[in-house]
Amino acid sequence: MLTAIAVFFPLLGAALAGLLGRPAGDRASQVVSILCMVIASAAGIAAAVLLGIGATEPGTIEITNWISAGTFRVSWALRNDTLSAVMVAMVSTVSMLIHVYSVGYMAHEDRPCWRFFSYISLFSFAMLMLVTADNILQLFFGWEGVGLMSYLLIGYWYYKPAANAAAIKAFVVNRVADLFFTVGIALLFFQFGTLSFSDIFAAVPSHAAHHYELFGASLPVLEVIGVLLFIGAMGKSAQLFLHTWLPDAMEGPTPISALIHAATMVTAGVFLVARMSPLMEYAPIALSVVAVIGGSTSFFAATIACAQDDIKKVIAYSTCSQLGYMFAAAGVGAFDISIFHLITHAFFKSLLFLGAGSVIHAMSGEQDMRRMGGLWNKIPITYSVMWVGFLALAGIPFFSGFYSKDAILDAALGTPGGVAFYAYITGVAAAFLTAFYSWRVLFMTFHGTSRAEPHVQEHVHESPAVMTVPLILLAVGSAIVGYSLDGTFIGLHWQSFWGASIVTLPGSNPFTHMESIHGVVKWIPTLVGLAGLATALLFYILVPWIPGWLATRFRPIHVFLVKKWYFDEIYDAIFVRGALALARLLWKVGDVAVIDGVPNGIATLTTDSSGEVVKLQTGSVAQYAFAMVLGVVILVAVFLLFR
Amino acid sequence: MNAAGFPVLSLVTWLPLVGGAIILSIRGDAEAVARNARWAALWTSLIVFGLSLVLWVKFNPSDPGFQFVENVPWMPEYGLTYHLGVDGISVLFVLLSTALTPICVLASWEIIKYQVREYMLAFLILETMMVGTFCSLDFIIFYMFFEGTLIPMYLIIGVWGGPRRIYSAFKFFLFTLAGSVLLLLAILAVWYQTGTMDIATLLHTKLPASMQIWLFLAFLASFAVKLPMWPVHTWLPDAHVEAPTAGSVMLAGVLLKFGGYGFLRFSVPLLPVASATLAPLMFALGVMAVIYTSFVALAQDDMKKLIAYSSVAHMGLVTIGTFTFNEQGLQGAMFQMLSHGVVSAALFLCVGVLYDRLHTHEIDRFGGLIDRMPFYALILMFFSLASVGLPGTSGFVGEILVMIGALQVNFWLALLGGTGMILSVGYMLYMYRRVIFGTIMHADLKNFLDLSPREVAVFAPLVVLTLWMGIYPASFTSFWAASIGQIVQNHQMAMLHGVHLAGMLPR
């Protein structure tokens, strides 16, 4: 019941905000949507706590039948197990805080912003449907729902061409991934005859030996399903090759970046892999793919983050990189650690985005760090919470990121095999870069002398309480969530918390290996992080000419990073221009010249000849009908004669 | 007798003509005639729709056979009967036709200014023909209704259409006629072979395998043009561009369904061996339609053409679903047709809203409309999303069922057939962006008004239907589940026997 309240109150809030917006104005919409989110959040936390202390049993709320066709049956149902409950609590809470923050952030909009509140409430509903789905098709409903709301919110400032382009890009790239996801769903049904999670998971062991013919080879069917679903996850979670939409998505209002593109929607892919853990455990190759893509993304995105000057772009690539960590963890079988990092990341990354929003707010909309600097004493609250956020992000002890990120790297190191080691190496390298770009942002934004225009400098002001209070709450979360959940979410007793919602095969959970990591090796990630911090300090405070010198000296590498490894350019040339060119070709040549050429030619021929010789072309339907009957008679005669 | 206790199908079929006769008898000055014709057409179509709701209420979903049957000998010496009836496959199409007609009348209320009486008459005749097509259980009667739709449609495009209406109407007529001739030929061949034209009887008649292939190809010629399938789809964009809004609504909403209905009613059950043999061809054509026309849609700069091409792509999924011969695929095809009937009709009505204001559907003439018409922007967004198959709208259910059906046949069929998922988002959102988003660049858009109450009344039922079909599709699938189940079962039986037949009859 609590779950249902948590899921459906945001929907109610969205509807009321949308309906009240025009007649009653922005304030009414804000009040109802926040009120509904507060209720949802309270219910969500209560449900998670009750489940966590064992006061309630995991269960399912069946609502009604959704789609049925023959043996295909899918229901609308809410699932309440630990994994869902943890996600519901996190999503509703973060969303609630961001609703509050948005009241301040959107206050300077020229146009009414009730639409915005209706959208983010609707987004929250879709996200909650996603995490509470009891079958994979309903999960897909939430999945597409959050995709839609992401599209609408990226393009919220619809008069900005860049926002419109980014919105479409996000939707299309996600749809590419979703195609594979859908085929994966179809294959799941084909193989299991059901799409309900419980039924699939119960049947997984008996399908482990089944094969599926593909590419002329016979592949284990669970591997094929695993890879297809993971491609879906790659789109939503902006993993390497399908990541290009996420940085562009920063065109949306900053609260959106915090809510959708940091804390919740982009983590849906990680959630999917964790949700499917009972199946993924039987698909070792698919898991290796997950680990490799995750590890690669964590490193690749971190390199780009080091060279961006837009404060939001840095944090966006950082998100991409952190999502890579989560996948790396899932790929080595540590689904619980991956969700742990998801939760800690939700706090510190939404904090960072909202902090960046507060900076942008203070700087009259400026996002380029090259035109910031020296802000630390002008916006002290923002400055302090940003410190907390970056300490957590960089995994400095005892902030929340430290617990989850270290656990991921330990798990990768502790798991035997080359893939896990690759994930470890890329993860450690990314840890260095993460600390570096974190303090690069801090130093460029808050320290040194101000490089802003004088009139911008005059207007610099700390944000109102409606914005700073959520920031402080998130900062508290970023500081303590890791420490307080460490022994519960992960560790040797992880199973007593997660129950049946996360499954690993006996012996494959990395905790069995992690205990063997001792001494200095255990501290490598932390040391590397501190080294990154020191490098940033050196580059941007002590010897500030180094970055410029490096950029000139290693110009190709610098340009390569600034250009984000040229993914956008390559994709644009191949897919966007390619598609448009093909579209015109098929239309002008295929349809107009070839297909229409024939009948039009005949028509012209008949018109020309008949116009002069016989007046057949009279335009009278009756005569055509007569001609038709006549023709039929002849054809029938021919048919019967030569039969 | 039948479940309704009175000849409901005959009434639904012929009542529009009675209304048409009343309209014809209207006299007076031009203004009065136009006004009375509008009201008479609206009331007639509303009464017919109300009457057809009897089918919704009284239909027995557990009976896979024909219901509300009326059977009167007509020309007994030739074995022809006036035989009407609906089963799970046809009943909702009847309702779709009767539901869209009043909407069309309402949508044409102000924009049609000349020859209103004849215009309304054409729509009522069209309604009779459409309902008759879905109700008739005699092949000859079916053919008469089926072809009969051509004439009012030809006139609607040719008289009340855009500047190139004559070319388009003629192209429409030629394409469909070419196919229809072969259909008639095939019908006559069936008659010659079996001696009956009764569809209910024919469904249990086995035709020689060699003959089936030829019949299938002849049926295909007609249904492929109607659906339309690649590569005989080019009449559709032209017809839509020139047709008046309501004409497009009927064309996309109902007439395109004739093709899919033909496959489900005739090709699959009557010609199981040929259907199975030629299924790969149908898959190829379906996939081709999805990919090819989706790309072409991407390049369009006319809203109506774009939606027309998207229709072809959606119908490609219908083709794929139909020839999977499993319940998910067939039900998916049915659902896709029904959903497309609602959604594409709504999209054309959306274009009509703009056309009424500016007399063009060129995309570049618009832009930034959201500031002037926020409610319209919402409606267009809603139906665009339904068209791309967003879960929770009707478009999704058909799409996912077809994909699930297709995957049981072949992995690549599902993957390639699903590419429409990506491309449709591309062309729909690209269009939406250019029409709705941005800032107003053309001065004449600045005094646009948002939807009028009449327009809201047109869209409201379609919004409700789209959501209903997306959230609780069981209300609709339950109608045809039994009939589809029987088709699948019969097909499997026929395949068991068909293998023998094909071996026994070399010719």
Tell me the layout of helices and strands:
The complex is a heterodimer of chains A (643) and B (507).
Chain A (H helix, E strand, L loop, with lengths): L1 H23 L1 H27 L6 E11 L2 E9 L1 H24 L8 H19 L3 H19 L6 H32 L4 H11 L3 E4 L2 E4 H16 L8 H4 L5 H10 L4 H8 L1 H4 L3 H22 L5 H21 L3 H28 L17 H14 L6 H15 L3 H29 L7 H6 L5 H25 L4 H5 L12 H4 L4 H24 L3 H8 L1 H8 L4 H29 L1 H16 L8 H21 L2
Antiparallel strand pairs in A: 1-2, 3-4
Helix pairs in contact in A: 1-2, 1-4, 2-3, 2-4, 3-4, 3-10, 3-15, 3-20, 4-5, 5-6, 6-8, 8-11, 8-13, 10-15, 11-15, 13-14, 13-18, 14-15, 14-17, 14-18, 15-16, 15-17, 15-20, 16-18, 16-20, 17-18, 17-20, 18-23, 24-25
Chain B lengths: L7 H17 L5 H29 L8 E9 L4 E7 L1 H20 L8 H20 L3 H10 L1 H11 L4 H30 L4 H4 L6 H18 L8 H8 L2 H11 L1 H14 L1 H27 L4 H20 L4 H32 L10 H4 L1 H14 L6 H16 L1 H7 L2 H16 L17 H19 L2 H31 L3
Antiparallel strand pairs in B: 1-2
Could you explain the architecture of this structure?
The complex is a heterodimer of chains A (643) and B (507). Chain A has helices at 2-24, 26-52, 82-105, 114-132, 136-154, 161-192, 197-207, 221-236, 245-248, 254-263, 268-275, 277-280, 284-305, 311-331, 335-362, 380-393, 400-414, 418-446, 454-459, 465-489, 494-498, 511-514, 519-542, 546-553, 555-562, 567-595, 597-612, 621-641, and strands at residues 59-69, 72-80, 211-214, 217-220. The model of chain A is unreliable at 609-618 (pLDDT under 50). Chain A has 28 helices and four strands. Chain A has a two-stranded antiparallel ribbon with strand order 1-2. Chain A is mainly α and 643 residues long. With 507 residues, chain B is mostly helical. A two-stranded antiparallel ribbon of chain B has the order 1-2. Mean pLDDT of chain B is 88; it is low at 502-507. The chains are: A mainly alpha (643), B mainly alpha (507). The interface between A and B is large, with 62 and 72 residues.
